[in-house]
Amino acid sequence: MHSHANRLAASSWCGVFYVTGGGISFLADILTTPGASKTLLDASIPYSTSALEDLLHVSVDQAVATETARSLGMAAYQRAKQLNSPQPFGFGVTATLTTDREKKGATRAHWAIQTQSDTWAFELELDTAESREAQEQTLNEACWQSINAVLLQSAPLPSGANHQQADANWQQLLAHSPHTWCNKTHAGQLLLPGAFNPQHAGHRGMLETAETITGLPGAYELCVRNVDKPNLDYLTMAERVSAISDRPVWLTNLGSFVDKAEAFPKATFAVGIDTLQRVAEARFYRDSAAEMALAFRHMGELGIRFLVFGRRQGNRFVTCDDLTLPDALRRLCEPVSEDQYRSDLSSTALRKARKP
Fold first, then answer.
1. 85-96 per-position pLDDT tens digit
2. Looking at residue 270, what is its pLDDT?
3. Is the pLDDT score of 176 beyond 90?
4. How large is the angle between the packed helices 2-10 and 24-31, nearest 10 degrees?
5. For the stretch 8-23, what's the b/e string if a residue is b when 16 or more beta carbons lie within 10 angstroms of its beta carbon?
């Protein structure tokens, strides 16, 4: 497959590859091609689940899944940008292939290509009757076909391709400067931040209760950037926005509540106590009590408020009043009592319940 690697090396693309076992021969094609440094900035093989989670800084619900491949592609793209690639891309692949251990379910592969303007995701079910070497070769050919199609426009797309092209607004969400975008007209004065993976009745109930308390029309805020995790890819953005029909959705790259306060002054943020507890963690302020106090004072000056919803933790329902918070943060908070609203639904639990 060196001819494929030569064509990629002759292009202006320069990227990072994250490969979880299956796809190693694809990576070997690049590494053993003269001039590989023209294409390859960095590569990693997070073979175990713990290595994968360490790379992505997140607990992985399912290692071999399109969501994991997209996260790997986005993490690789972000790394390529950090390494100052003139035309960056990220490639991530996760696969389960035939081994000497008994497998549950089909042997399959998922991979993704991330660029500034596009997210491409692919999947391939592999013949369980084939040897591991034959499966690896099939996957290798499919990966090269996707590279040739997406980056070099020199081959047809593999079957099963999933694609989302981003307009200029969405592309700015992956840039460094603060940026916001809303899918409907909304003043941004009552927001429920979250990942919404998935959105559920608890989110809807919280926002409805917040609207009743404040008298303001509400919207959801989905931050595509996280301090530790890879950014959300364009396919994931589109899927989560389209899954929410009851209220407007703001997409932002505002990773801290100081950033949110500056973008939405005088806004009320409807949050659960778990979110509020994270706001009070010193690690988000470089472990500086003075920097934390300055952040809370700045948020107060910008007029933001936290409408704080309780939730079950262990065997008890915990509210804002049960938390130990800095006084400067507590002054920004209005508790919502259990009588006003309670829901024990959890996005994490819902994801685990639907896991095959």
1. 999 999 999 998
2. 98
3. no
4. 60
5. bbeeebbbbbbbbbbb
CA atoms 274, 279, 282, 285: torsion sign = positive
Kindly report whether the global pTM for this prediction surpasses the value 0.70. Answer: yes
* Residue 272, CA atoms < 13 Å, CB-side half-sphere: 18
Tokens of 163: 């694609």
Secondary structure of 135-165 as H, E, C letters: HHHHHHHHHHHHHHHHCCCCCCCCCCCEEEE
Full DSSP string of 26-51: HHHHHHTSTTGGGTEEEEE---SHHH
Bridge partners of 110, per DSSP, are 94, 123
Give ∠ CA 90-244-240 in degrees, rounded to 5: 10
Q: What are 254-276's pLDDT values in tens digits?
A: 999 999 999 999 999 999 999 99
Q: In 148-299, which ranges are E strands? A: 162-165, 180-182, 190-193, 219-223, 249-252, 268-272
Instruction: Give backbone dihedrals phi and psi of 122, rounded to 5 degrees, phi first.
Output: -135, 155
Report the distance separating Cα 285 and Cα 191, nearest Å: 23
Tell me the per-residue pLDDT of 114-153, one tens digit each, with 9 for 90 and over: 999 999 999 999 888 888 888 889 999 999 999 999 999 9
